[in-house]
Design goal:
By secondary structure, this protein is of the alpha+beta class. Helices cover 33% and strands 25% of the residues. The protein is built from 22 helices and 34 strands. Strands 10, 11, 14, 15, 16 and 17 form a six-stranded antiparallel beta sheet that branches. Strands 2-1-3-5-4 form a five-stranded mixed beta sheet. The chain has a five-stranded mixed beta sheet with strand order 19-25-24-21-22, with no helix packed on it. Helix 3 (46-55) crosses helix 5, helix 7 (103-115) packs parallel to helix 10 (143-162) and helix 16 (301-324) runs antiparallel to helix 17. The protein starts with a helix and ends with a strand.
Length: 893
């Protein structure tokens, strides 16, 4: 074949022998066979659903108008082809296959024009074994048509710059118009042709070839022919799809360049999974050979202009996608693949035979590896076919399937009648808020929520929250490639009821970050039902993404359930992109732990910021005058939970009075100290009375017990207990029992009893009757430095163990009374809880103060005190104040 390629190498249009034609026909047959294999093996996916919908329209005009987000030419061709081939998956994709076959001989001709017939043969082989062209030929989309038309434009332009002919002019203009009516990247291609032509005129310092008069006249004609589509559809494209888009940054550039290069040689539907990094390295190494060849060709005059075409068209494509708001995807590079194949072939044609053959084998290996990866199940198309088959086997006529989209979900509709699905299919409009979606929600039957991963039209999780409001358990989940379905056993009987509020949350400096304008009422659901609690806020001055945490506290004051939700607008914009005053909503869904008994459960709201750079959330300060606050949590309401129907899993048969679950904090075998709490959660199955939970030392010198005075109901029941290591407990081993059964053992490390006061800066003798006396502080010498964490040591003298474990706070207040530095901790860095203090003992309590952004040089006031971390209540002193003044004037530098 190399000898055949050498015949009249500089004149590709002459001396074509019968043998050469036979070999070319054989090459085309190989291309046809590889593209035909498995043509209908995968499901139609979302974009192909548009194509199927257009092909099935009753008239050509209907086919042209089937998709308001894309030009009509391809849909018209598909409509004509459907009358001959039908609308099966095979028939729809066969059109792309047929359109893609002429790309191979035209790639040969482009390579031959640039660097001779040998380069043309190599270019054709690279096109045959091109994974992107193979993929495009197996897609019921317009990408092979794009590649064909771009090739015609490139060939016509090459002809016009060398020896203009009437046919070249006509081919250029016709191909340009067809491109503009094939895909929305058509304007980028027109700009590419005009830009490169202008550069050609400037570098050649002449306007005769191609003739500037003919050029501008032709471009005006092309523009006039495109004007109807431009005015009626193209201008509306940026707002056509409201899904979240990924914006490129400078940090993304290296990865972008690598993906761009790989996009010329890999099948683009799915990236290679992270576990296959070895495959990425192999493909990168092999394609590096083709990169070297392309650079070699670009360094020569014959390939320089072709390289310029590729660079200009790629850059314009990226800019156009950013303007339209679309992500970069490998499918957009398919039209550039023949140009890159011709450029690489121009370089390979001048290499020695051995290197040339090795490079072609490398290209074949890249093709085989890329195709093999693309057809694996984990990298398959979105499996709408499998999902609709599941609907046909699972749903009934009274059931409803909900799916998001900016238009109908045509890929689901394509299979709906084919599989005879009896359920209704409702497409929720993308970018719609609750008031628009509410009338579309079903009121009877089961509800299936279709979640398509590619289109994040419900980033807030609004539908999952609403459909789970008041349901008895989590939805059943079914997953196929590219999508998941959540099946709710019944439609929600009610939706959350909102009430107007005015809760302004601020950062540590007091800057308003957001104002909650509405919050859901907390209904009185049974304990086994989940609850949707939407939160509506008005954005403040912050530039970070805001999130909501909803927390439920149990009978002992601990958080027993928590969920987090992101604030976003209906069109999926996060708060970091909003202006002050714009509205955003969050949809937290909360449920009590499995087996929770009836009772009153306080429900709290916390707002926090989530910074993408640091990854560290920061809690916002809630309004203290708008309701009970615990720490930074504002009370939303009280869940008056009735008795829930908690049944054991089917795999776990009911057994009377059986202890089926135990959760301990700290864990079995841990070391504990005097006053430490051991929290026990027990889950029971059956019916009867609970056992007493006991903690005692092995010597039998002390014993602590706890029980919940509530009889077990038939089913499953969760109960919470807390036991404390006594203040007087000696070092040794303690045992936790439920009834007569040993559950866990802990090692007590008793703190030494200190009775002598250490040296202090001075005494203040502030009396806290519930705890003891704050005798005095030990302060650092000289001014406190903001760049450091100054150490403040407090000396306490205990009156005995407290009923609750209190947290000590130490704060430095500026002249306006604002906190500029603080420390909050259980005494002695968490090792000496106040519940373990013994009468008369001395406790040394060290605190390192951390300054915040508000701190400035000057004089500050130092105070200290105690508070209950579960309620936020401060412990009063004997004089009624809730803090003790440590120092009236502390210098801060």
């Amino acid at each position: 074949m190399d000898s055949l390629a050498n015949q009249n190498d500089s004149k590709p249009g002459r001396g074509i022998s019968a043998t050469f034609l036979a070999i070319c026909s054989f090459v085309l047959l190989i291309a046809f066979g590889t593209r035909l294999l498995g043509l209908d093996s995968q499901s139609l996916w979302f974009d192909e659903g548009w194509s199927a919908y257009a092909a099935q329209r009753p008239t050509l005009v209907d086919a042209f108008n089937a998709d308001a987000t894309n030009p009509p030419l391809y849909y018209g061709l598909l409509h004509f082809a459907a009358s001959a081939f039908g609308t099966s998956e095979f028939a729809l994709r066969f059109v792309s296959l047929l359109i893609g076959l002429p790309v191979i001989p035209l790639t040969f001709y482009l390579g031959a024009q640039v660097a001779g017939r040998r380069a043309g043969v190599i270019a054709a082989l690279l096109a045959v074994f091109s994974a992107p062209l193979w993929w495009a030929s197996q897609e019921a989309r317009m990408y092979t048509l794009l590649a064909l038309l771009v090739l015609i434009c490139a060939l016509a332009w090459e002809r016009l710059r060398r020896r203009p002919t009437r046919l070249a002019w006509q081919a250029l203009w016709v191909a340009e118009v067809l491109l503009l009516y094939t895909h929305n990247t058509g304007p980028v291609i027109a700009l590419w042709l005009n830009g490169v032509t202008l550069l050609w005129w400037v570098t050649r310092r002449q306007l005769k070839r191609p003739s500037w008069r003919l050029w501008f006249a032709g471009q005006i004609l092309v523009g006039l022919l495109w004007l109807p589509y431009f005015a009626t559809r193209f201008l509306a494209l940026p707002g056509a799809n409201n899904a979240i888009q990924t914006r490129l940054t400078v940090e993304d550039l290296p990865a972008l360049l690598l993906s761009l290069w790989n996009g010329f040689w890999q099948a683009p539907p799915r990236p290679i999974p992270p576990l296959e990094r070895e495959a990425i390295l192999v493909i990168f190494a092999l394609t590096a050979v083709l990169l070297i060849a392309a650079l070699y060709a670009a360094a020569r005059p014959a390939g320089r202009w072709l390289a310029l075409h590729i660079i200009a068209l790629t850059g314009g494509l990226l800019a156009g996608l950013l303007v339209l708001g679309n992500d970069l995807h490998g499918r957009y590079l398919v039209m550039l693949v023949p140009l890159m194949a011709a450029l690489a072939a121009a370089g390979l044609a001048r290499w020695p035979l051995a290197l040339r053959g090795g490079a072609l084998l490398a290209a074949l290996a890249v093709f085989a590896l890329s195709v093999a990866t693309a057809v694996r199940p984990e990298n398959a198309h979105d499996d709408a076919r499998g999902m609709v088959r599941y609907y046909a086997e699972t749903l009934a006529a009274d059931d409803t399937v909900l799916a998001w989209s900016y238009a109908d979900r045509y890929e689901l509709a394509y299979y709906w009648e084919r599989f005879g699905v009896p359920a209704r299919r409702v497409t929720l409009p993308e970018g719609a808020d609750l008031e628009i979606v509410r009338p579309l929600l079903p009121t009877t039957g089961r509800v299936a929520l279709n979640i398509w991963y590619t289109q994040r039209a419900d980033y807030r999780g609004m539908m999952g929250c609403l459909l789970a409001h008041g349901v008895d358990g989590p939805p059943a989940e079914f997953t196929t490639a590219g999508m998941t379905n959540l099946l709710f056993e019944r439609a929600p009987e009610s939706l959350p009821r909102m009430r107007s509020v005015q809760w302004t949350f601020a950062d540590g400096l007091g800057t308003p970050m957001a104002t909650v304008r509405a919050a859901a009422d907390v209904p009185g659901f049974p304990s086994h039902q989940s609850m949707c609690l939407p939160i509506e806020l008005e954005n403040g001055q912050g530039e970070a993404d805001l999130k909501a945490a909803v927390l439920v506290r149990g009978p002992l004051g601990d958080v027993i359930a928590q969920t987090d939700a992101v604030f976003a607008t209906a069109d999926q914009r996060l708060t970091s992109t909003l202006l002050p005053g714009e509205r955003a909503d969050a949809f937290p869904l909360i449920a009590l732990p499995f087996g929770s008994p009836s009772g009153n459960y306080p429900v709290y709201l916390r707002l926090y910021t989530s910074h993408a750079d640091s990854g560290e959330p920061k809690d916002l300060e809630p309004p203290r005058d708008q309701g009970p606050v615990v720490g930074r949590d504002l009370l939303l309401g009280v869940w008056d939970a009735g008795s829930g129907t908690w049944l054991p899993p089917a795999a776990a048969p009911m057994e009377a009075d059986r202890l089926s679950g135990i959760d301990l904090a700290p864990a079995d075998g841990a070391m504990v100290r005097n006053g430490d709490a051991i929290r026990v959660t027990l889950v029971w199955q059956g019916e009867g009375q609970t056992e007493v939970v006991t903690l005692n030392d092995e010597a039998g010198s002390w014993s602590e017990s706890s029980t919940v005075e509530q009889a077990l109901i038939p089913g499953v029941l969760r109960q919470w207990y807390v036991l404390r290591v006594p203040a007087e407990a000696a070092s040794g081993t303690v045992v936790l029992r439920v009834g007569d059964s040993e559950i866990a053992r802990f090692t007590v490390e008793a703190a030494p009893m200190l009775t002598e006061l250490p040296d202090m800066t001075y005494r203040i003798d502030a009396s806290f009757p519930e705890v003891g006396v704050l005798v005095g502080p030990s302060l650092p010498d000289g001014p406190m430095q903001r760049a450091t964490e100054p150490l403040v040591s407090l000396v306490w003298q205990a009156e005995g163990p407290s009923a609750e474990s209190y947290t000590v706070f130490v704060q430095l207040l500026d002249a306006s009374g604002q906190v500029v530095a603080q420390s909050d901790a259980v005494p002695a860095s968490g090792t000496r809880p106040t519940t373990g203090w013994r009468a008369g003992e001395v406790v040394i309590d060290e605190h390192r103060l951390r300054f915040n952004e508000r701190a400035t040089p000057g004089t500050a006031r130092l105070i200290a005190g105690l508070y209950d971390p579960l309620t936020g209540r401060r412990v009063p002193l004997s004089d009624g104040l809730d803090y003790a003044v440590i120092a009236e004037a502390v210098e801060v530098e």
